[in-house]
Specification:
Blueprint (H helix, E strand, L loop, with lengths): L27 H21 L7 H25 L20 H19 L15 H5 L1 H8 L5 H23 L4 H28 L21 H9 L2 H25 L2 H4 L4 H8 L12 H29 L11 H22 L1 H4 L2 H21 L5 E2 L2 E2 H20 L4 H4 L3 H6 L1 H12 L3 E5 L9 H5 L6 H7 L13 H4 L6 E5 L19 H7 L1
Antiparallel strand pairs: 1-2, 3-4
The structure holds iron/sulfur cluster (2 copies).
One iron/sulfur cluster binds next to helix 20 and helix 21.
Length: about 525
């Protein structure tokens, strides 16, 4: 018998790491799970290409079930086979999560879907000019008939897929972070709000009272920037008490409910516990959270952009309401001028209070806040002096509204906000564009009990917290100094805390006093220990 042949792998391993940083290969169970999920997705893709399924209800149920089962099996195989704890191995080595080819392909696919959804819904099969639906939209017709008694629209298709994505990826997220109770509870909360408040209640409300305007009860102005348009106000008024109740709820949620909750808990009560955009970002977008830019220049850009969107939406909403007020004094008891003066007085009051009591806390930002305030006041004065019935100086109020709807509502929040998850990270919309996040952030910074506290002495500067903060906050820089994190952009997702191996970070609500402690930091190399010894 000759010598035994030793077979060695020809694969060259360039990594010098002892810890095998590259992505683990998928297990057989995961591959099967992926195949099941993709078959479900494939049914939807066939429908987009106009396959005429004989029994649409059954095919839709099969498709959604396969997607559901595939994701659940995948998550089980990925996380239940391991002990609890931080699970982000190999994110920079997988093509999907590190802007590789699969990441880009997913981004392009999602973007194309959004473009079709917003601008060419007939490509998805929406029946126009009285024709019945075909393609993907028609696949959802039976389900829509059950819920609201009408054929599906492209928005019903989107709402269903959106909700399914939050539910299945929410499950995956809960397994991934099962070492952290905060993540489990808040994910349960966003799944509940999406399924019940955003999806089921509006459909059922339509069935009970078809004259009521569509109302997602958890969407608050300026997110639902269209809420105070004439056709909706008319709809609320003509629906009687329930309509008036909804209108009142819409106003109260802006001026009473939201400020109280933000004072007590910070903006996380909305951005990480209730909001649908945040829900999709945190669940379906979780694999991309490390892609958010941490550059100082991005931080500067973010502050200009999000506040510019806020100024735009305030001016646009004022313009839209202003143009229809006064036509019918019986319906709209508010006159045009009283409305303009009220908006001006409210903004001036907020501005004056902030300048008197919070000038120091605002620092340099007071100047930028003043610019925003004066731009809005100048616009209000211009409305008064240069308007005809529907025109505000050169603009039609309706043009302002449709431009906002197009650029911000569709392109920014949909196409870029979600389509670009695999390229820019999962909270692009929340960070750069959402005007409600800007309002909540403003309050969080100045008038809230919330902060992320840091126990600097424990920090080993591993950088996990900064890497996985999807709002691009350099958490480590605060942790190293033992400084509290009080940032307008922090959505209180708690991931920084969940991925910290040393238990340095804690999300807390406590007294406002001493919340911002940037002046009290004691760095190790600032202290001369001999001073302390000599004092004894
Ligand atoms: S600082 Fe922490 S809690 Fe705040 S957004 Fe970033 S990861 Fe979430
Ligand atoms: S706070 Fe925690 S996660 Fe962040 S750098 Fe320090 S040890 Fe790492």
């Amino acid at each position: 018998m000759g010598p035994k042949k030793i077979i060695m792998s020809n694969k060259i391993n360039h990594s010098m790491s002892l810890a095998k940083p590259e992505a683990n290969d998928l297990s057989t169970k995961q591959k099967i799970a992926l195949a099941i999920g993709f078959i479900g997705l494939f049914i939807l893709i066939l429908a987009i290409f106009n396959t005429n399924f004989p029994n649409k209800g059954q095919f839709l149920t099969t498709s959604l079930l396969l997607i559901f089962i595939g994701t659940v099996l995948f998550a089980n195989a990925a996380y239940l086979t391991q002990s609890k704890g931080i699970k982000n191995d190999g994110v920079w080595f997988k093509s999907f999560t590190s802007r590789g080819i699969t990441g880009w392909l997913t981004g392009v696919g999602l973007t194309l879907f959004y473009i079709a959804l917003y601008f060419y819904p007939e490509l998805l099969g929406l029946g126009v000019n009285g024709n019945s639906n075909t393609g993907l939209v028609s696949l959802f017709d039976p389900f829509s008939q059950i819920l609201s008694g009408r054929p599906a629209s492209q928005w019903f298709v989107y709402g269903t897929l959106y909700t399914v994505a939050i539910l299945v990826f929410g499950y995956k997220f809960m397994l991934k972070y099962r070492h952290n109770r905060y993540q489990q509870i808040r994910t349960g909360s966003v799944m509940f709000f999406q399924l019940i408040f955003a999806f089921l209640i509006p459909e059922i409300m339509y069935r009970l009272n078809a004259t009521l305007p569509y109302y997602d009860l958890k969407s608050i102005w300026p997110l639902n920037y269209y809420n105070f348009e004439q056709y909706r106000i008319d709809g609320f008024i003509s629906a009687g008490n329930i309509g008036l109740g909804l209108l009142l709820f819409g106003v109260l949620s802006i001026f009473v409910i939201s400020p109280i909750l933000t004072y007590k808990y910070g903006k996380r009560w909305y951005c990480s516990w209730v909001c649908g955009c945040g829900a999709l970002a945190e669940t379906a977008g979780d694999s991309f959270r490390h892609l958010s830019s941490k550059k100082t220049s991005t931080w500067k850009f973010e502050r200009w952009l999000i506040h510019a969107v806020l100024v735009f939406v305030v001016i646009m909403t004022t313009a839209v309401i202003y143009t229809y007020l006064g036509y019918d004094p019986e319906k709209y008891w508010l006159t045009k001028d009283v409305f303009l003066v009220s908006v001006g007085v409210l903004l001036t009051l907020v501005f004056a209070l902030v300048m008197v009591f919070k000038r120091k806390a605002l620092g340099k930002d007071a100047f930028y806040g003043a610019i925003g305030y004066f731009v809005i006041i100048a616009a209000l004065i211009a409305f008064h002096y240069f308007n005809s019935d529907t025109k505000l100086f050169i603009f039609e109020a309706e043009t302002l509204r449709s431009s906002y709807g197009f650029f911000i509502g569709a392109i920014f929040s949909g196409v870029i906000g979600t389509g670009f998850y695999p390229i820019f990270g999962n909270r692009v919309w929340c960070r750069f564009g959402c005007p409600f996040a800007a309002i909540l952030g403003f309050q969080q910074r100045l008038l809230s009990k919330f902060r992320v506290t840091t126990n600097g002495g424990q920090c080993i500067s591993c950088g996990n917290c900064s890497t996985y903060c999807d709002m691009g906050i350099d958490v480590r820089a605060y942790a190293q100094k033992g400084e509290n994190i009080v940032r307008s952009s922090c959505v209180g997702c708690g991931i920084c805390s969940a991925v910290c191996p040393r238990g340095v970070l804690k999300l807390e609500n406590d007294s406002m006093k001493g919340r911002i402690n940037s002046n009290d930091i004691l760095l190790g190399n600032n202290v001369d220990l001999m001073d302390f010894v000599n004092q004894k």
